[in-house]
């Protein structure tokens, strides 16, 4: 039985690899050697083992020669040398663990002509190998060899997984590859300075332990607040119940007078609870998971609220589009058929995934943010006769965004290495390195300005929050002009939009022909994608949302911006005027189209569009959008960096992955919102108004806080009173 397993393993796992290598070395397998009789007699078994040993040994090296040379031994790899020699010896003797190590290593798979260059082997199989030998025991260690260069034929070199004893370091494995020991010289890899990374289990750093302690404290606060609420609810329920409710079996027999006394005592207790609650109890109640969860899941009733209910649908659908884009963007780095993506981009429906069109989803958020900040603030200025507590205006915004934002950065930076386990785990180090270095720029909301390039940012998708905060900071100047001197206000908006158009046009004219110099793509993206002066137009369009447009204009403009580049993936190169025009005005045109949809729904002219966007189920999802925006890329990163086999792209797999990402993102957002976001929102009521303020200032602060609640489209929880006539 064991010998049969040897035959099957060698035939199914090693034959294709050996044929590839042997043919590359101008060796031949005779037809007699491949005959069934030869297989049954064991001749093929012996031949394959010999060829395998010769393949794994440098040319001219005899069977009794060590694998690693003296230089490697001097570099502290003596134990690795001994383990590798023992493994090769056991391989020639048919030891199963040795075959498992070879089986776990990467081999040429099918689909190479379709771009399958990820020969990553079996990560989990390698990590599970335990060799029990006479001299010593060792485990399997998984290493991944990569090269960004191309070989002499112009083909991109593959990623190859290698399973070696755990005594071997990445440097030693690299030397084995450079010396041709692993047979990779056939692929011409040694010529191109390959880089090898060996996967090791991460250790809990002091920062990770501190993060866990903070999360534990937060958890205790949630337990404490929930416990107080549950205790009060049970006390109220028990003492406020009459005879008919509790005397079902005649066990209790209270009189009507006793029931009335109980209710009176309960009301008195509630009064005392309200009066006697100190700061500690009030703080704990802010963390009540039941109360916060009920608020998030609450579906508002019809009324004045319904006039702006369509914003929930726009916000949720835009968030779905963002998740779809981010899910799709990561696939080329992990799929075994990247060439299949070309046909996807060439489809008409695939334009929602093309980078230039898909990123318009974020501009929808800018539109809603600019519109809501302007609308709510103007409303407050009118009620307050031009007076507004601007300190509260800014404090609310910072307090609303920052606590949960910093908590997610803390968890991602410290605990991120412990979230994944797979051949691409090493990528986490590069993802987190920027956060360890530049997290403070996120705290100050300048991460879109410094560092300069997008790929250097901490949590690079948070460039949006930096832009939105910067727009929020300058918005009072424009809003005040709109309130006092409307012509100056509109002139200011026009001047800012003109400056934005100019900066975009100059950038696209300078970096038009990226095909001749792809390195300039990062420079173009830095100038046109994340900088505030290139993204403010959508925000400004939201601020002038009241302009009269029309459905035909909105439909034509929306479709034109999304599908205007339809012929580009099919090989039609844009002319310079086309590229400059589209890059300069596309986001502003998209913003104006979204603005009309919002405007039409608000004035009751939305028809079926308003009915869809105002669906009540969007309301709780809309409240979770901020946390979902922050968390969904982390879940995507964790998934892709934990895959042990390449992802095979297909429409079905993509839909399945997209829907799963949405569900997990909003589930994680709900937990984060209940445990962290909502409590800090409640704490704001304890912080504002501050002591020493006048009665009018306190009242004004409270009203302002309510009016400005969640003015960002990724945060909005619309209150009914802002929709009154």
What does this structure look like?
There is one protein chain. The protein has 725 residues and is mainly α. Strands 1, 2, 3, 4 and 5 form a five-stranded mixed β-sheet that branches. The protein is built from 30 helices and five strands. Strand 2 (130-132) and strand 3 form a beta hairpin. It folds into three domains: 56-198, no CATH class; 211-287, no CATH class; 297-723, no CATH class. Helix 9 crosses helix 12, helix 13 (289-297) packs across helix 29 and helix 14 packs across helix 29. It starts with a helix and ends in an 18-residue tail after the last helix.
Count of structural domains: 3
Structural class: mainly alpha
- Tell me, briefly, the overall form: globular
Low-confidence stretches: 1-49, 51-76, 241-268, 546-550, 690-725
Question: What's the alpha carbon Rg, rounded to whole Å?
Answer: 32 Å
Helix amount: 55-70%
DSSP E strands, number: 5
Task: Give the rounded overall mean pLDDT.
Answer: 76
Give the strand content: under 5%
End-to-end separation in angstroms reads: 85 Å
Number of helices: 30
Main sheet makeup: 5 strands, mixed
């Amino acid at each position: 039985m064991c010998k049969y397993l040897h035959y099957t393993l060698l035939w199914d796992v090693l034959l294709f690899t050996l044929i590839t290598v042997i043919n590359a070395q101008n060796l031949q397998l005779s037809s007699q050697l491949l005959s069934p009789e030869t297989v049954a007699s064991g001749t093929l078994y012996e031949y394959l083992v010999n060829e395998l040993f010769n393949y794994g040994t440098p040319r001219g090296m005899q069977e009794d020669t060590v694998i690693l040379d003296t230089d490697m031994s001097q570099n502290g790899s003596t134990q690795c040398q001994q383990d590798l020699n023992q493994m090769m010896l056991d391989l020639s003797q048919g030891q199963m663990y040795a075959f498992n190590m070879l089986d776990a290593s990467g081999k040429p798979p099918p689909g190479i002509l379709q771009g399958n260059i990820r020969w990553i082997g079996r990560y989990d199989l390698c990590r599970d190998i335990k060799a029990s030998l006479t001299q010593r025991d060792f485990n399997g260690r998984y290493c991944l060899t990569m090269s960004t260069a191309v070989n002499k034929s112009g083909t991109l070199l593959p990623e190859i997984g290698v399973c070696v004893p755990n005594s071997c370091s990445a440097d030693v494995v690299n030397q084995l590859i450079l010396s041709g020991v692993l047979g990779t010289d056939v692929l011409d890899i040694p010529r191109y300075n390959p880089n090898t990374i060996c996967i090791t289990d991460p250790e809990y750093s002091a920062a990770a332990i501190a993060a866990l302690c903070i999360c534990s404290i937060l958890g205790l606060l949630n337990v404490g607040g929930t416990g107080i609420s549950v205790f009060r609810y049970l006390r109220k329920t028990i003492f406020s119940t009459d005879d008919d409710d509790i005397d079902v079996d005649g066990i209790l027999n209270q009189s009507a007078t006793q029931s009335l006394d109980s209710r009176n005592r309960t009301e008195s207790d509630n009064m005392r609870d309200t009066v006697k609650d100190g700061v500690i109890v009030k703080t704990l109640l802010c963390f009540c998971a039941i109360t916060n969860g009920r608020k998030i899941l609450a579906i508002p009733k019809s009324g004045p609220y319904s006039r702006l209910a369509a914003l929930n649908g726009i916000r949720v659908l835009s968030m779905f589009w963002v998740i779809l884009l981010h899910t799709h963007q990561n696939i080329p780095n992990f799929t075994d058929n990247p060439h299949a993506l070309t046909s996807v981009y060439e489809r008409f429906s695939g334009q929602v995934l093309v980078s230039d069109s898909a990123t318009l989803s974020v501009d929808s958020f800018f539109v809603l943010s600019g519109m809501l900040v302007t609308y709510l603030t103007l409303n407050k200025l009118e009620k307050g006769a031009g007076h507004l507590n601007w300190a509260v205006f800014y404090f609310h915004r910072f307090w609303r965004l920052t606590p949960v934002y910093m908590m997610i950065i803390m968890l991602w930076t410290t605990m991120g290495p412990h979230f994944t386990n797979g051949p691409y785990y090493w990528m986490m180090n590069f993802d987190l390195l920027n956060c360890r270095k530049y997290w403070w720029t996120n705290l100050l909301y300048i991460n879109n300005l410094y560092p300069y390039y997008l790929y250097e940012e901490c949590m690079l998708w948070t460039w949006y929050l930096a832009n939105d905060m910067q727009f929020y900071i300058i918005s009072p100047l424009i809003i005040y002009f709109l309130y006092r001197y409307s012509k100056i206000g509109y002139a200011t908006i026009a001047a800012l939009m003109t400056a934005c158009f100019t900066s975009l046009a100059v950038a696209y004219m300078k970096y038009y022909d990226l095909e001749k110099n792809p390195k300039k793509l990062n420079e173009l993206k830095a100038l046109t994608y994340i900088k505030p002066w290139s993204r403010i137009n959508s925000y400004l369009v939201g601020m002038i949302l009241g302009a009269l447009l029309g459905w035909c204009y909105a439909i034509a403009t929306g479709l034109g911006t999304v599908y205007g580049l339809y012929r580009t993936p099919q090989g039609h190169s844009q002319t310079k005027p086309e590229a400059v025009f589209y890059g300069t005005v596309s986001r502003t045109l998209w913003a104006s189209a979204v603005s009309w949809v919002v405007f039409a729904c608000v004035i009751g002219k939305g028809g079926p569009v308003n009915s869809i966007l105002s669906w009540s189920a969007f309301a709780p999802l809309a409240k979770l959008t901020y946390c979902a925006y922050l968390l969904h890329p982390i879940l995507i990163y964790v998934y892709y960096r934990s895959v042990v086999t390449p992802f095979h792209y297909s429409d079905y797999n993509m839909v399945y992955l997209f829907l799963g990402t949405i569900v997990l993102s909003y589930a994680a957002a709900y937990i984060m919102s209940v445990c962290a976001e909502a409590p800090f929102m409640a704490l704001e009521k304890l912080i504002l108004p501050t002591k020493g303020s006048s009665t009018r200032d306190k009242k004004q602060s409270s009203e302002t806080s309510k009016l400005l609640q969640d003015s960002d489209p990724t945060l909005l929880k619309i209150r009914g009173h802002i929709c009154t006539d």
